[in-house]
Amino acid sequence: MSDPRRQQERSQTLPDLGMQALRETLGASIPAEAQTDAEENEIIFHTAEVETIHKVLDRIDQIATKRRNEGFNETNFTIGVLNCLLTVYIFGKYPQHFWLFYLVEGFYLIPRRVYYSWTRKPLNEVLYYVDYCWVMNMIGGSILLYILPAWTVSHEVRRQLYITALGVACGPLLGASATLPFVAVLFHDTVAMGGLFIHILPPMLT
């Protein structure tokens, strides 16, 4: 059974303990006016603390809402992880069909990224796709679509196209993925995964 006196001591605040220690040290009681001033300062101090905490919590809520609007949730994260596992599986199990997987991924990620940049506020970022990496990926996808029905394309043309694609994919695109800070694996963010797609999948494809 707990001691009532001990519970009372625990319930005392730090200013109360400070007052008690000061009384014992001086051997005299503190005037009532000084005690009232201390209590008022304590109330003001606690009010400022509460206001600061509320401001911090409001800011956290704003950031959380922004992240949710950008797609930061369990569903998108799970889909992003499964997509990466599928990429590795197809690359290892069916490398001869990896170019089809590249086209499917490109048909989803590239238009979604373009739409995101087009609706960007306050200014859209659609001219961002004049960037070398995006242009090369669009040209590469177009070449794959051209070769797909045109089985009569000569061997020499295919050879030259492959050498060109190999130089672009394993040169600037692969080098950019190792040096640029915005090429990141963010499973929940389709915009970031689109940037990762155009830098990583072409070297894997070639």
Helix content: over 70%
The proportion of strand residues reads: under 5%
Spans of at least 5 consecutive residues whose pLDDT stays below 50 are 7-15
Shape: elongated
| Terminal Cα span | 76 Å
The string of secondary-structure elements, in order, is HHHHHHHH
Number of DSSP helical runs? 8
Number of domains: 2
Tally of extended strands? 0
Mean pLDDT, to the nearest integer, reads 75
Largest sheet: none
Structural category is mainly alpha
User: What Rg do the Cα atoms give?
Assistant: 32 Å
Account of the protein in words:
It contains 8 helices and no strands. By secondary structure, it is an all-alpha fold. The chain has 2 domains: 4-66; 73-205, no CATH class. Helix 5 (98-118) runs antiparallel to helix 8 (190-205) and helix 7 crosses helix 8. The longest helix is centred in the first third of the chain and has 38 residues, at 32-69. The radius of gyration is 32 Å and the shape is elongated.
Quick rundown:
By secondary structure, the chain is an all-alpha fold. It is 76% helix and 0% strand.
Give me some keywords for this one.
elongated, 76% helix, 2 domains
Secondary structure topology:
Layout: H1 4-11, H2 14-26, H3 32-69, H4 74-93, H5 98-118, H6 132-147, H7 155-179, H8 190-205
Helix pairs in contact: 5-8, 6-7, 7-8
